[in-house]
Each structure stands twice: as C-alpha cells, then as structure tokens.
Amino acid sequence: MAELIYHPEALSEAREVAVYYESNRDGLGREFLKAVDAAIERIEQFPEAWRKISGDFRRILLRRFPYGIIYSYLNDVIYVVAVMHLKRKPGYWKDRLEDTEWEG
User: Fold this and answer.
1) Is the torsion defined by CA of 23, 69, 3, 9 positive or negative?
2) 12-16: Cβ within 8 A, 24+ apart
3) pTM here?
4) pLDDT tens, position by position, for the chain (104 residues)?
5) Which structural domains are found in the chain, ordered by start?
6) What is the dihedral of CA 76, 11, 50, 94, to 10 degrees?
C-alpha cells in the first residue's frame, strides 16, 4: 500500500470544517470526517483514478459535501495537500508546495 502523507494545513482544514459543520448540526462534523476518510480510502485503492488538475495533482470530490481533496501520487506516495471548498479560490493550495520538499 502507498505511503500517505498529509500537509499540516490539509489536516487543519479538515478539522476546521468538521468543527464548523458540527456547530451547525450535531453529528454533521463527524459525517464530514467520515466522507473525508471514505475519499482517502478510495484514493488508496485507486490513486490514479481521478484526473489531474494541475501538474501531478489530482482532485477527488467528497460525497455529500462541497469539498474536494487535492493530492498527488508519485513513487508509491500519496501526498494530500488540501481539503478545499469547491467554491474557494482554485489553486490557493499551490503556495503550500513552496514550504515542502514535495516534488509532485
């Protein structure tokens, strides 16, 4: 199985969104995190199934929520760089690549 690496800001995004949803309805934040986990499992099973959106980076959409996970799969490593709202400025996550040694 591929190694899975999360950019720290991707983890923060997921947590912040879960807290937001939980504040709106009890249990909704947990449902959001389950949707994130399900998407990660699909990525792990079929890392090259989703189309590339920029360079080697791909996007998988979450079920039920207006979010996508931006990731790269290279040399048997899945690098999750963002958990982004689909209406947010596209490409904002590219700045994160400057803070890492990732070459995806």
Assistant:
1) negative
2) 13/82, 13/83, 13/84, 14/83
3) 0.89
4) 889 999 999 999 999 999 999 999 999 999 999 999 999 999 999 999 999 998 899 999 999 999 999 999 999 999 999 999 999 887 778 777 765 555 44
5) 3-94 (3.30.2310.20)
6) -90
Q: Quickly tell me which residue has 């079920």 as its tokens.
A: 63
Supply the DSSP symbol for 100: S
Largest CA distance in the chain: 40
Determine the residue type at 12. S
